[in-house]
Predict the 3D structure of the following.
Amino acid sequence: MTTNKAFSVCVQTEPFDLGLEYNQFLVGDRSAGAVASFVGRVRETNDDQSIKQLELEHYPGMTEKVMHEVLIDAQGRWPLLGARVIHRVGALSPGDNIVLVLTSSAHRHAALDACAFIMDHLKTRATFWKKEQTPEGQRWVKGRDSDQEAQARWHAED
Amino acid sequence: MKIRILYFGELREQVGVHEESVDLAGTTRTVSDLITELTARGSVWASALQTDPLRIAVNQEMASLEAVLSPNCEVALFRPVTGG
């Protein structure tokens, strides 16, 4: 297991381009028969409130470390050829992309399952915090039990 | 013993501090002792730090209240993460 160029993480304020990232992810690759991608976006409503803006804060250093750990965990479970995660921080608006996960493998199940595994673990482990601007003011997003359960289901047989 | 403390998100707003260096009292050994020491600063600190859920990282690893502090360590205090 290695964390090399094929396995990379990035925290950035800038938008990302899925098509561009996909092409760069696969440059020179002729063995990946399957690539899975997930994009998380800002919804215009959350908990019955309309969202004007989302502010994302993180813990520089620890965030990247945890994201790498999640990729290493995924490599331990599936025969992945590569994985890339981009997570944005700063001020975002409804419809903006927040997070991108790309995974590649020889076959589809490894790529799809690893992509879901990585997202479920980013949700519960990566040190990001969201603050919403609603018409009634600002509020910090609370952690969801459903996210904890989504992570836990990967470990039911561990 | 000197340590660095970081506060993030809602907790950062509640205590009004993002980052500080603190010279700990001689009796402060663990994260739990540190919370007690910070809580003594006043009502804002007490209500922020004694409100669950509190999450702790020591040197960028998740830690428990029982974790033992070491000189120059980095302690981060925050609420459960909400990324993705």
Q: What stands out?
A: Chain A has a mean pLDDT of 95. Strands of chain A lie at 7-12, 34-41, 45-46, 49-50, 53-58, 80-88, 90-92, 97-105, 128-134, 137-140. Helices of chain A lie at 18-25, 62-77, 108-125, 145-152. Chain A touches chain B through 27 residues (CB under 8 Å).
